[in-house]
Fold this protein.
Amino acid sequence: MAKSRFEYVREFERENHLLPQTYIVVRVDGKGFHRFSQVYEFDKPNDIEAIRVMNDAAQEVCRQIPDVLMAYGQSDEYSFLLRKDCRLYDRREMKLITLFSSLMTSAYTYYWNVAHPNNLITIDKKLVVFDARAVVYPNFTVVQDYFRWRQADCHINNLYNTTFWALVLKGGLSTSEAEQTLSGTLSKDKNEILFSRFGINYNNEPEMFKKGTVIVREVGKSLASDTPVEDLSNRQLQRLDKVMRKAEIKVYHQDIITDEEFWDSRPWLSS
Amino acid sequence: MAKSRFEYVREFERENHLLPQTYIVVRVDGKGFHRFSQVYEFDKPNDIEAIRVMNDAAQEVCRQIPDVLMAYGQSDEYSFLLRKDCRLYDRREMKLITLFSSLMTSAYTYYWNVAHPNNLITIDKKLVVFDARAVVYPNFTVVQDYFRWRQADCHINNLYNTTFWALVLKGGLSTSEAEQTLSGTLSKDKNEILFSRFGINYNNEPEMFKKGTVIVREVGKSLASDTPVEDLSNRQLQRLDKVMRKAEIKVYHQDIITDEEFWDSRPWLSS
Amino acid sequence: MAKSRFEYVREFERENHLLPQTYIVVRVDGKGFHRFSQVYEFDKPNDIEAIRVMNDAAQEVCRQIPDVLMAYGQSDEYSFLLRKDCRLYDRREMKLITLFSSLMTSAYTYYWNVAHPNNLITIDKKLVVFDARAVVYPNFTVVQDYFRWRQADCHINNLYNTTFWALVLKGGLSTSEAEQTLSGTLSKDKNEILFSRFGINYNNEPEMFKKGTVIVREVGKSLASDTPVEDLSNRQLQRLDKVMRKAEIKVYHQDIITDEEFWDSRPWLSS
Amino acid sequence: MAKSRFEYVREFERENHLLPQTYIVVRVDGKGFHRFSQVYEFDKPNDIEAIRVMNDAAQEVCRQIPDVLMAYGQSDEYSFLLRKDCRLYDRREMKLITLFSSLMTSAYTYYWNVAHPNNLITIDKKLVVFDARAVVYPNFTVVQDYFRWRQADCHINNLYNTTFWALVLKGGLSTSEAEQTLSGTLSKDKNEILFSRFGINYNNEPEMFKKGTVIVREVGKSLASDTPVEDLSNRQLQRLDKVMRKAEIKVYHQDIITDEEFWDSRPWLSS
């Protein structure tokens, strides 16, 4: 039973420590959520209850991982920003991403079951699975552009889905007819279809659908100090950790693409 | 809303494609399971119901991922062996490990809740979280030694825990007294304590506790063919996939360290 | 001058330790050798003296790095095979590849200058530069196919170049006319052009040109022992090192694509 | 000769594209330069001619690679800073570092042989070899601290070597006696030994020895523009390349640890 005889196998293990002083974004993404939404009978184009489960789960992730400064969610994905001096798991990539994928899975399952006592998640129907990836960004401009990219994606998808399901549910088209109708159309064409055929002004659609969900840890002040983080004492690091844990976690449905005020009023996001 | 203006952020994404023609082992590991076992009141030293939940969850992982050839579990960890020609997710490391961590989390939560209707997993108590890592091994000897290493670890831990909890539960020692008693002892000393003080012959303990759990996809024949896998047609690959999906998944509690028969009788494990 | 205040910058350094028990191939490749061959006035299609400089340089690399088991060179590239238990520089990728690129550069420069006292390498004309890359292969079949790939490449290039320069030097075509003539031709077409227009039987061309150069460390027996390499004592490792250093380094121009005898008679290449 | 049958081996090749928008520092380091300095009979503690060869070689590297903004050299090492938007070789790590190690080797060999016609580099004596590594830094503060770290290292080493060789060459100590004398001494102790025993005021030693060598591409203005580099047209990129190629390359021996003026007057270094 000499364990040591086999210990050499550890030499094959590899770690990727993410570059220090860079912003880490972890994006979790639902696997097979198209089918998941059918099996659990989501409302179309947007199921408010399902979105709330996603948002509740993401908030739980933020609560449990105090290094998360903000998060952005839309459709079946959520992106979490970790502060650039985050030392969680010594910045080991595999540890970080599996923590997020697993915790998101656990929290989603929990909140779903609480909200749907008559439509519980079961193995026979389909389990929830989230994959995750980590990306590091060396400066905050790219981080902002990352979140703008996701919100632009939300807009494009939601406008499409809103029009598609209007054509199907209100216009009586089959899904493939709706697809054909929208093939090659621009944003303004979809707006026009919504308005002229169904009297829907897209601008009046709920912000939650159009903008997705922004979660912010409202720290309220810059985390940066004159002391470089590598010189902070353990006591100072603990104080920082405490500040993060105590900060309120708030939820918004607002523009983060052009609204500089969102970013300017929260200097700690880049600190 | 020009999404394309922000698309450059994708250049920061990195992928690690695991080396082709190597065996991939993914190990999932419970996070904070010591506290989990306290919160959900596990029997000590081994909680049969909790072990069954682990094993049920791992079997579900095997069912859903047909490239898994075998798995080995003990304590709060499970290791899954993927066949060396596995092309799942194009062998992208992040995709693979988050799939395993998330699916294990989902399946564990499901089976736990089914088995413990009066002790459901809740956020207030504690959610289940599994991390995961992938390691590649270039030849099957190292793969065998990897699994031997985990089973040797199982033996060492279980002998310790069995003795420790005998001292506490039957011997009336405090946990710190039990710890002191065992400090520096060898295997034979623990066997002696168990036998002389508590009349326990460790050899008679349940195999499930002593050996952990081995799950095998009983394919029944070598997967290797004269044709190198990169030359297989799509049809041949589909046939292979079908063979994997149809193969029975069986559970054992047996020695895999010295029992060469286990390995010799299953040539497909290395193919 | 407190150096320690700045030492934190070391945290940004990354190492890639190449997977243990895999074959490492390092390929060096001349940078800008097309222009180099013009500046230093190489004979076309093959400059025997320049090939000899390459081969001499590669042999020096083999002499200085005893873990090299064989090498294969053609055109301005050379591939070196390191034995699978090689521990040079702890298998750190950056150390390994820069050692090969630098040593090849040094040796090439030295041998060139010795062979061409009236055509020395100078900065004004052009310096020699080799890049290098490392690739790991998990089994010896892929290693063989790697070398076969390079020799097949040699054949294709040399047949093309031989025909191209026959058209230019003997046929009086301009280089662009020769290019057009060969565009879209198959091997048999080039053989036909050589034979019918210039009376050249390609099969009779020198083996050095057609096959490239194979360098073998003729160890003479398998390096493998019953003891796994991780269990070898330092003394055994030193003995192995001595065997490698003493083994004769020989040069061949022969087929390694279909000639199984080459491989079968040298079991140590895979050990 | 079907090359394509073997082409699958390319799947084993891996590339590490260095993170965009980060500063790349490549450090080349002489291999076995202690022995090199003995074989080629360097003056001790500093051989001016040998330092000049290093500096000439490094300048040639700067000339040939226009993305190098500055370099710092001391002892047998040189560090090169590439601008953060450098796209050389698509930022492939292996290509980059082997280019530097090879080019440094070529240029060093050339300049050495020009300067030492009676002490040429030969294989029988010893070839020049440089290894190289690349490190990326996400912000310019760390880049500055990196160069400060190397200059602090230069100071520590040079003070030691100056004292050591004074003890040996002027004080008549053996090298091991000198080593013992210096064991455990602080900077002020070494200064005191130099002054009291040998009348040497360390402050009056040549700047080249005390500070090492700084090479700057004197671009003269910031390279940054309002347009993010990913949006620059090819024409703008070519113009930038031309600016870099035309900029004068100058050599200094000065403090870069505390002299903020050095950095402040060269805004392009961080751009």
About this structure: Chain D has a mean pLDDT of 95. The first helix of chain D runs from residue 33 to 39.
